[in-house]
Design brief:
By secondary structure, this protein is mainly α. The chain contains 3 helices and no strands.
Length: about 100
């Protein structure tokens, strides 16, 4: 997996540098494709890193907290097939009801 990811990153960097060279009007031969990789070609990794940090440390904890807290329960009360959005309180009520029987 690491080898495939490394190959994808290097390929994307080469693609970015060739696009930049084409925008500047530089004509490249096929033999020169390894020499055009610059640090600016890897700038897309910064965007991927920021997106990954947001997903793992902001969006995911927020969605899990909302899902397990039961905040969505009043909005989906009329749909019995979506009972799992009731949160922990809903599960405790179910267990209490099963224990009484």
């Amino acid at each position: 997996f690491v080898a495939i990811a490394s190959f994808a990153v290097a390929g994307r960097a080469i693609y970015e540098s060739r696009l930049q060279a084409a925008a500047e009007g530089v004509i490249l031969n096929e033999e020169e494709w390894l020499g055009v990789v610059k640090f600016e070609s890897f700038s897309f990794l910064l965007g991927y890193g920021v997106e990954s940090l947001l997903v793992y440390f902001a969006y995911y904890p927020l969605m899990v907290t909302i899902g397990f807290s039961g905040l969505l329960r009043p909005f989906f009360r009329c749909f019995p097939c979506i009972r799992f959005l009731g949160g922990r309180q809903n599960e405790l009520k179910k267990q209490y009801g099963e224990r009484k029987m």
